[in-house]
Specification:
The complex is a heterodimer of chains A (172) and B (189). Helices cover 38% and strands 20% of the residues of chain A. Chain A has helices at residues 2-20, 25-40, 111-122, 141-153, 166-171; strands at residues 59-60, 70-75, 78-81, 84-90, 93-94, 130-135, 158-165. In chain A, strand 6, helix 4 and strand 7 (158-165) form a beta-alpha-beta unit. The longest helix of chain A is centred in the first third of the chain and has 19 residues, at 2-20. The N and C termini of chain A lie far apart (69 Å). Helix content of chain B is 38%, strand content 22%. Chain B has helices spanning 2-22, 27-43, 89-95, 112-125, 142-153, and strands at residues 49-56, 71-75, 79-84, 103-108, 131-135, 154-157, 160-163, 167-170. In chain B, helix 4 (112-125) runs parallel beside helix 5. The longest helix of chain B has 21 residues, at 2-22. The N and C termini of chain B lie far apart (98 Å). The chains are: A alpha/beta (172), B alpha/beta (189). Chains A and B meet through helix 1, helix 2, strand 1, strand 5 and helix 4 of A and helix 1, helix 2, strand 1 and helix 5 of B.
């Protein structure tokens, strides 16, 4: 009788210590799942082409990866080169700050933008002849054309239009 | 009876001990996960970005002895217009004959599928040709332009993808009609 009581007590004590251990199995399962998801979306592309927050890029069926080019971003409030505002816009329309364009014969050249990019090329801050264009999906083609036309005058001969791959867009 | 019960208890205790000794030590794996997860989170991209090549082209084009299609897709109020200043596209599609000449095929209602089918027909006669010029309207959205670029770049028929004209160049679009006195207007009111 005594023996059985002490054995049961020991067993209970052991059970008690077991229940005090952290149960890591479920955490391991969760980590394994997370690891699979992250490995699937792991990007080996070293080019940083993340558009600004809130920017809605157009959709495309293209699957080609972007190259390392100088990135020009056309937002509702301005044209940015690598996060620096070069030419202000107001709802995709040129404001007075870029008003020099109006009275010239060549209506498609953005002179302010051309001057600022040219200065960067002269300072050797820009060396590629390709340009990555990030623009909102509702940007009028007029402003895109004028940006490309201006860049063409500065020797940019290849333009990469950034867009979201169609299948990804459908998911979201 | 009591003895039998005691024996069962001891047996359970032994099994429990054996299990505890045989458990995997998962702490090193957990440590590895703790390092891997933030690292992968940093380099993961949840939205796949792609690019479309384009260029700015001047009106005119190259002079060549052989007949080239020299295709231009123009967007106008009625729909798309497929132009060629060097090849008679109508004769090419109807009579399968390459004839020098000018032509203009109109596709009403911005039907990109119909445009792509016409381009497939032309591509069969010029398999090496990869160039095409686009003239969108100035007030077209960027998304519309990208859709047009997709339509002329490749043709998707179910799971098969036929390359069409991936070298896309933009030509100067016609100016928008501005109301008198308004300068620097980009978007048509």
């Amino acid at each position: 009788m005594r023996r059985s009581t002490s054995a049961t007590r020991r067993l209970r004590a052991r059970r008690g210590s077991t229940s005090g251990d952290l149960n890591l199995t479920s955490l391991t399962d969760m980590f394994a799942f997370l690891l699979c998801v992250l490995l699937k979306s792991f990007s080996v592309n070293t080019v940083d082409i993340k558009p600004s927050a809130g920017m809605k890029l157009p959709n495309t069926s293209s699957v080609e990866q972007p190259h390392r080019y100088v990135a020009l971003e056309i937002r509702r409030d301005g044209i940015y080169l690598e996060k620096d505002l070069l030419q202000p816009l107001k709802d995709f329309v040129l404001t007075d700050a870029g008003g020099a364009e109006a009275n010239t014969g060549n209506q498609d050249t953005l002179f302010v933008l051309r001057g600022l990019i040219k200065a960067r090329i002269e300072r050797r801050e820009i060396e590629s002849t390709g340009m990555l264009i990030r623009a909102e999906r509702d940007t009028p083609f007029d402003i895109i054309w004028r940006v490309m036309y201006t860049a063409r005058q500065l020797g940019f001969d290849e333009f990469n239009n950034l867009a979201v791959h169609e299948q990804e867009a459908k998911k979201s | 009876m009591k003895r039998v019960r005691n024996a069962t208890v001891w047996k359970h205790l032994k099994v429990n001990r054996r299990l505890r000794q045989g458990d995997l030590n998962i702490r090193p794996i957990m440590n590895l996960f703790m390092v891997l997860v933030p690292f992968l989170l940093m380099y993961s991209s949840f939205v796949e970005l792609s690019i479309l090549h384009s260029a700015v082209s001047e009106q005119g084009g190259r002079s060549s002895d052989e007949i080239r299609p020299g295709l231009i897709v123009e967007v106008n109020d009625a729909g798309y217009a497929l132009l060629s200043h060097t090849c008679n596209l109508q004769k090419l599609l109807d009579a399968q004959e390459k004839v020098v000449g000018e032509s203009r095929l109109t596709i009403a209602g911005f039907d990109r599928q119909q445009l792509a089918k016409l381009l497939v027909g032309i591509k069969q006669h010029f398999p090496k040709e990869t160039e095409i010029s686009l003239v969108p309207r100035r007030n077209n959205d960027y998304q519309e332009v990208i859709r047009l670029m997709d339509a002329v770049r490749e043709f998707r028929d179910g799971n098969t993808i036929k390359p069409l004209f991936p070298n896309i160049a933009f030509l100067q679009p016609p100016a928008l009609a501005k109301p008198a006195g308004v300068k620097n207007e980009v978007k048509q009111p």
